[in-house]
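User: Can you predict the 3D structure for this chain?
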Amino acid sequence: MLGLELGINRRFDFLPGFWSGFGVEANYTFMDSRVNVPRQFREGEELITVKDKTSLPDQSKHLGNLIVFYEKGKFMVRLAGNYRGRSINAINQNLGKDYYVWTDSNFTLDASATFALSSKIKFFLELNNLTNEPLKQYIGDKRRITSYEWYGIKGQLGVRIDIF
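Assistant: Here is the predicted structure, written as structure tokens:
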């Protein structure tokens, strides 16, 4: 297994006035995982064993996110884009890699905002999957879709009160 993670978190506090509240956070992860999946089949009277190489289930090779934010005084606003590369969902050991179930790559966009009425009382709004990105799964290649699911935009609106 081989991996690499890169990240940056930068507040633009060197800018004047209003602009000093902006900032950016970004990270990227590369993970190259390998596993040998043994498979046996018969050719006539002979039993043949092969090993298919693949990545670990539910382990995307590429992950990343980018967050643009504004934090100043009582306000905080964030917009986050999240990317997850394709990954194997299920390994069919008997039929081989042409029949593995994959979860396709996807990109979601989330937003959040907070207003601090005081140091103990904060109002917040969180919205997830603003683009209503679907979850898509397929067998072997992208033309053999097994599921295409939309979960919609979800959100929360509330007040947080710190008692202690």
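The longest strand covers residues 22-32. Residues 2-161 form one domain.
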